[in-house]
Specification:
The chain is mainly alpha-helical and 102 residues long. 82% of the residues lie in helices and 0% in strands. The relative contact order is 0.16.
C-alpha cells in the first residue's frame, strides 16, 4: 500500500473522515424513504463510531510520537483535523437524518 508505514498511520484519520462522507451519501440513497428502525440504526450507528475512531487514532499518534516538535506537530494536526472532522460528522448526521436534527 504505502512505502512508508508512517504515511499509512498519518493517512488513516482523513480516510475515515472521507468514509463518513461516503457512508452518509450511500445511507441517504439507500434508506431515505425507509421509516424502519433497523434502517435508521444501519444509517446512524456507523457514523456514531467513525468520529470517536478518528479521535482515538489521533490520540494514538500523539502517544507514539517522539519528544519535542514531533509530538507538538501531532497535537496541532490532531486539533485541526478533529475540528474539521467534527464539522463533517455533524453534516453527515444531518444528511442521513433528512431534515437536520428534527
Amino acid at each position: 500500500m504505502f512505502a512508508n508505514p508512517e504515511q499509512h498511520r498519518h493517512a488513516m484519520p482523513p480516510l475515515i473522515t472521507g468514509l463518513m462522507v461516503i457512508w452518509a451519501l450511500i445511507a441517504r440513497l439507500l434508506f431515505a424513504e425507509s421509516h424502519l428502525s433497523l434502517a435508521h440504526a444501519l444509517s446512524f450507528y456507523p457514523l456514531f463510531a467513525f468520529f470517536p475512531l478518528v479521535i482515538l487514532l489521533h490520540t494514538k499518534m500523539i502517544w507514539q510520537a517522539g519528544d519535542g516538535m514531533e509530538r507538538l506537530d501531532q497535537m496541532v494536526y490532531a486539533l485541526i483535523h478533529c475540528l474539521l472532522s467534527f464539522v463533517v460528522w455533524t453534516f453527515a448526521l444531518m444528511l442521513v437524518n433528512g431534515n437536520s436534527f428534527s
